[in-house]
Amino acid sequence: MTLLQHDVIDFTLQAYQDDGIRQVGKSDLLGHWSLLFFYPADFSFVCPTELEDLADHYDAFKQAGCEIYSVSCDTQWTHKAWHDANESIGKIAFPMLADPTGALARDLDTYNEHTGLAERGDFIIDPEGRVVAYEVISSNVGRDAAEILRRVKASQFVYEHTDQVCPAKWEPGDKTIKPSLDLVGEL
Predict the structure, then answer these.
(1) Catalytic positions (predicted)?
(2) Within 10 Å of residue 178's Cβ, how many Cβ atoms?
(3) Residue 91: its pLDDT value, please?
(4) Which site among 27, 77, 79, 176 is 20 to 30 Å from 160 CA-CA?
């Protein structure tokens, strides 16, 4: 079953951000673009490399009108301890959501019942709270923040220009395609 156009459940989770704990819920996703970035665990191996990459690209995501929410099945207290203990994770300015029951991870089909951890998945959420793009990959392969940002921008473009599609490697300013019968077999 695909998760495309899936309406994210109404949720409320604790989050660590800006040296404090706050609640983040579905209402925080509405009205703007969001990235839910699931990763297996704090104090692990591939996860800090991905989160540091996201932190390094955070300003670019914000300029694109997209908020990042990292999510794991750790607690908000574990997020704080990791943020304080690790220089790379200390760069993170976006909310680090705690999903210790796996409710949000289950809703987006990233929860691994055998390990009790979230799988490595990223979900681009439109301003109405629907999944418009996602990727779930093996826990031993890291993701690239620049490529995720490119997919956010492409998703935003087709959201605004419903009569057009973005070809492979599309970047803002590149040509798009307006599907039509006369293009069939010509590309």
Answers:
(1) 47 (cysteine sulfenic acid (-soh) intermediate)
(2) 9
(3) 97
(4) 27
Q: Please, which residues bridge with residue 121 across strands?
A: 38, 136
| Residue 66 falls in the annotated catalytic set | no
- The pLDDT tens digits for 124-146 are 999 999 999 999 999 999 999 99
Low-confidence ranges of the chain (pLDDT < 50): none
What are the structural domains, with CATH classification, of the chain? 12-143 (3.40.30.10)
For residues 58 and 145, give the distance between their C-alpha atoms in angstroms, rounded to a whole number.
9
Which among 47, 66, 73, 166 is annotated as catalytic?
47
Question: What residue has token string 């104090």?
Answer: 43
Return d(Cα 117, Cα 101) in angstroms, integer.
10
